[in-house]
């Protein structure tokens, strides 16, 4: 009996250790939560520190509605954004498709100051980076963190989507969106891969506006999305010397006639671009232009928002423009399916919703 006691003790110890090991291996292990403080770097290359992911987010400043469209590509947006910005191209009608309670949010004017923003008690404020030295600094002085985004060019879109993914703690969603944009751009690039410079048509992008009976035409700066899309679509911007820097530059019909481009793409934010294009094309002065004579004068498409802007829809504008400039290289046999695929991936909208709520709104010379 005495010789058996050590053996029994050893067996007991062995069983105890086996039970402990088995329990440890079967116990669910909590997956680490990404740290917002270590992951977020904004458009100004500033690391931002949050003790927890922001739950009350305000989007502020000029151009905020374009930021809102990008932010709503993340499913966390409806519950975390606590304000909306007034006005701007019916963007609220679109966001209500993802957020039925949008109208219950606090309304801020586009020019809301730091005190109005602070009154919303946000955990973080998102705004365009060019506002950093003005509104941004004023908000930061109140102790409110500001996340700056650009979202002005294709390259900035890929970078800033990653920042939004970090802000919402949804890196998988950010990568899915980035992959879609890269894939669509690569499809265009592959189609135009061996396109010679001499085969790139001369292109003019014009915005049209009318106030007080006066008509104005403007061209975008070279660094803006509208110009970048022309270049990606295999065109040569003819206005490069007129708008090197700054904002939109006003041009007259005499200058347009001097450029006499192969293609003209007309943008109208307040009127239907296709109808404006038809009206202009009937005027004798416009009928002298090469683009009008050849039938290469187009109104830029829009649904709730025009597709030319630094809005998530710019990728639709790129595909459409490429199909107009190089139809022999870039076939678009089912453009409506492309739109349906975009809205399903970008905003998780069902095909029925897209067909009933978005496709009927498309204006301009589409497809």
Mean pLDDT, to the nearest integer, reads 88
Shape: globular
CATH architecture of the largest domain: 3-Layer(aba) Sandwich
> What is the count of structural domains?
2
Question: Low-confidence parts, pLDDT < 50 over ≥5 residues?
Answer: 1-38
Broad CATH class of the largest domain: Alpha Beta
The structure class reads alpha/beta
Q: What radius of gyration results from the CA coordinates?
A: 27 Å
Report how far the terminal alpha carbons are from each other: 94 Å
Number of strands: 11
Helix content: 40-55%
Strand content: 5-15%
Features:
13% strand; Rossmann fold; six-stranded mixed sheet; three-stranded parallel sheet; 2 domains; alpha/beta; 367 residues; globular
SSE order and pairing:
Elements: H1 5-26, H2 36-39, E1 57-59, H3 64-71, H4 77-80, E2 83-85, H5 91-95, E3 106-108, H6 114-119, E4 124-128, H7 132-140, E5 146-149, H8 154-168, H9 171-191, E6 202-211, E7 214-219, H10 225-232, E8 236-237, E9 249-251, H11 253-259, E10 263-268, H12 273-281, H13 284-287, H14 290-293, E11 297-299, H15 314-325, H16 335-347, H17 351-358
Parallel strand pairs: 1-4, 2-3, 4-5, 6-8, 6-10, 10-11
Antiparallel strand pairs: 6-7, 7-9
């Amino acid at each position: 009996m005495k010789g058996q006691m050590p053996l029994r003790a050893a067996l007991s110890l062995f069983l105890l250790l086996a039970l402990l090991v088995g329990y440890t291996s079967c116990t669910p292990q909590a997956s680490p939560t990404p740290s917002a403080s270590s992951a977020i770097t904004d458009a100004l290359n500033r690391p931002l520190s949050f003790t927890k992911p922001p739950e009350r987010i305000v989007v502020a400043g000029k151009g905020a509605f374009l930021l809102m469209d990008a932010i709503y590509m993340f499913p966390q947006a409806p519950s975390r954004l606590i304000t909306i910005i007034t006005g701007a191209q019916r963007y609220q009608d679109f966001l209500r498709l993802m957020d039925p309670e949008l109208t219950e949010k606090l309304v801020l004017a586009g020019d809301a100051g730091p005190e109005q923003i602070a009154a919303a008690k946000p955990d973080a404020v998102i705004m365009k980076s060019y506002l950093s030295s003005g509104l941004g600094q004023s908000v930061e002085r109140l102790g409110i963190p500001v996340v700056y985004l650009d979202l002005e060019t294709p390259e900035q879109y890929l970078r800033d989507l990653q920042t939004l993914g970090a802000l919402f703690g949804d890196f998988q969603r950010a990568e899915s969106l980035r992959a879609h944009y890269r894939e669509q751009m690569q499809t265009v690039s592959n189609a135009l891969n061996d396109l010679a410079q001499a085969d790139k048509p001369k292109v003019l992008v014009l915005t049209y506006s009318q106030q007080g009976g006066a008509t104005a035409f403007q061209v975008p700066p070279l660094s803006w999305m509208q110009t970048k899309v022309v270049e990606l679509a295999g065109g040569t911007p003819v206005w490069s010397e007129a708008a090197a820097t700054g904002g939109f530059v006003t041009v007259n019909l005499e200058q347009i006639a001097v450029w006499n481009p192969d293609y003209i793409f007309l943008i109208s934010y307040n009127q239907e671009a296709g109808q404006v294009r038809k009206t202009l094309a009937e005027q004798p002065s416009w009928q002298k232009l090469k683009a009008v004579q050849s039938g290469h004068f187009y109104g830029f498409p829009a649904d709730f928002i025009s597709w030319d802007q630094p809005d998530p829809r710019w990728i639709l504008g790129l595909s459409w423009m490429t199909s107009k400039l190089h139809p022999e290289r870039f076939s678009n046999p089912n453009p409506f399916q492309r739109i349906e695929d975009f809205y399903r991936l970008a905003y998780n909208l069902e095909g029925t919703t897209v067909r009933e709520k978005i496709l009927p709104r498309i204006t301009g010379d589409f497809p």
